[in-house]
Amino acid sequence: MMATEARPGPADFADSPLARVLRQPLILGLFLPIQDGGWSTSTLPRTTTWTFDYNAQLTKRAEALGFDLVFGLAQWTSKGGYGGAMRYRETSLDSFMTVGALAAVTRRILLISTLHVLYGPWHPVHLAKFGATLDHISGGRWGVNVVTGYAAREPLMFGMVRIEHDLRYRMADEFVTLLERLWSETENLTVRGEWWQMEDAFITPKPRYGRPILVNATGSPAGIDYAVRHSDLVFITSPGGNQLADALESLPAHTATLRGEARKLGRSIRTILNPMVICRETEREVLAYRDAIVAAADAEATEGFAAHGRAGDAQAWRNQKRLNRPVGGNLHLVGTPEQIVDGFRKLRAAGCDGLQITFFDFAPDLEHFGAKVLPLLHQAGLRLAPETDA
């Protein structure tokens, strides 16, 4: 790992958009469906679509409801996507461009893009300049989820082979350390790193709050070591599986490890988990909805996506138990509004600082969540009214 020195980040500025979000008892995010099929390999009819207009409307509605952030994934699929009649995720928007573009139609919500920094010819100077630009366009609301690429077949599209797991994180550490230096240095920067070099590099304008928001998704020791050095938000998975009981059993030790490693470096990180929320007024209605999603599964797409995960070397999913795979998402929260809120409360107690939720049918399910679940979250003290701009 490169030697790093403590530099102010957006959480250190009381008036930054991130600092405002971190004052919430439970961070609330929306994981946008910028990929065809969203998170589910079911063919049950729904409005969910990958288009920019649809995702922009979701983002504006989430902002109006008081959500703290939106997030987009990045992926590289060949023709046919992950297979099946639905050609699952064959079509997707680029996360970096799409989420950055949302700055033009929003004013408060945080915007987190995902980027594979090791694919192709990315250089820290590129991202430092692009990121500082988006930081100013968004008023300090933009951030990047740095991913290294666990899939076996994605790097082949760039004329590469997959880099060994722990080496990827050492490379990402150098890349992001250089980003942080470019965002903070007041003079030209010359570096001869192990993987990246630069001579008399300089970036201006500087980000408004030290640097843009930094995020990563991890569960491995190497990933955790990277996360506690650099990230503000860490996107975690449930080590035990996609059912709530298994998650609640496995999460406390996992989140405690992350916090403990961060404290050793004098840092504080926040963890965010991704549940698929399926909610209806009664248990009978919600189970019928869940079962209809499963019954309409595209079996080939379901297996194709599972095989993609098995072929990867991500360590966070190795021991997971998976039920009702066509539903999708890292964790299934299925219940009445009261049961969903109880699940949120239990996940918070298990060490989750935030939840980045997905829906099967995003637009109507988001409306139902806003009308029926959000008021109960406020009553439970899990959400405060969002702060307004001065």
TrEMBL record:
<dbReference type="InterPro" id="IPR036661">
    <property type="entry name" value="Luciferase-like_sf"/>
</dbReference>
<keyword id="KW-0560">Oxidoreductase</keyword>
<keyword id="KW-0503">Monooxygenase</keyword>
<feature type="domain" description="Luciferase-like">
    <location>
        <begin position="29"/>
        <end position="353"/>
    </location>
</feature>
<keyword id="KW-0285">Flavoprotein</keyword>
<protein>
    <submittedName>
        <fullName>LLM class flavin-dependent oxidoreductase</fullName>
        <ecNumber>1.-.-.-</ecNumber>
    </submittedName>
</protein>
<dbReference type="Pfam" id="PF00296">
    <property type="entry name" value="Bac_luciferase"/>
</dbReference>
<dbReference type="InterPro" id="IPR050172">
    <property type="entry name" value="SsuD_RutA_monooxygenase"/>
</dbReference>
<dbReference type="InterPro" id="IPR011251">
    <property type="entry name" value="Luciferase-like_dom"/>
</dbReference>
<keyword id="KW-0288">FMN</keyword>
<dbReference type="GO" id="GO:0016491">
    <property type="term" value="F:oxidoreductase activity"/>
</dbReference>
